[in-house]
Write a structure and sequence with these properties.
Elements (H helix, E strand, L loop, with lengths): L1 H20 L5 H25 L17 H14 L4 H12 L10 H10 L1 H24 L13
């Protein structure tokens, strides 16, 4: 009985330590992430217009969304950081209710799923090229010993 009591206290102490380590995303950080995503979406859309084939006389059957691509990307990033298991619960509870002041033009969940599919490529590139590079840079600044040289990239 005493061993299990000590284990429980140990788990509680570890949990409290983890709570202090976990970073909380503040509204300022959300705004910063939105600006990064918006700038990236503008760049991505410009590159796609420049390097993809132009459609012929094909009509567009849907109008532009009231929610921007950057907002959809931001909601996806916040969802993955939130600890929610289901996107639907996160979207309906947090984005539509608690974060309504950050996302004034929310769409229905069904429409959001369609928009989510449209931003899959920009989201993947944003995470890979921008966010991971920033994380690596901050990690190197904080933990790499001074004078340590970067390994050369041997990939073709």
């Amino acid at each position: 009985m005493v061993i299990s009591g000590n284990c429980c206290n140990f788990i509680v102490l570890n949990y409290k330590d983890l709570q202090t380590i976990i970073a909380i995303i503040t509204e300022d950080k959300v705004t910063e992430l939105f600006c990064m995503a918006d700038d990236f979406c503008k760049f991505f859309d410009a590159q796609m217009r420049k390097y993809t084939l132009k459609p012929g006389n094909k009509r567009q059957y849907h109008r532009e969304s009231t929610m921007s691509k950057a907002e959809v990307i931001l909601i996806m990033i916040l969802f993955h950081d939130s600890g929610y298991r289901y996107l639907k619960h996160f979207y309906l509870e947090n984005a539509c209710k608690h974060m309504r002041h950050l996302f004034p033009d929310v769409v229905s969940y069904k429409r959001f799923v369609v928009l989510e599919k449209e931003v899959a490529k920009p989201l993947a590139l944003l995470i890979k090229k921008v966010l991971l590079c920033m994380h690596r840079h901050k990690f190197r600044e904080q933990y790499a010993p001074e004078g340590m040289q970067e390994p050369e990239d041997t990939r073709p």
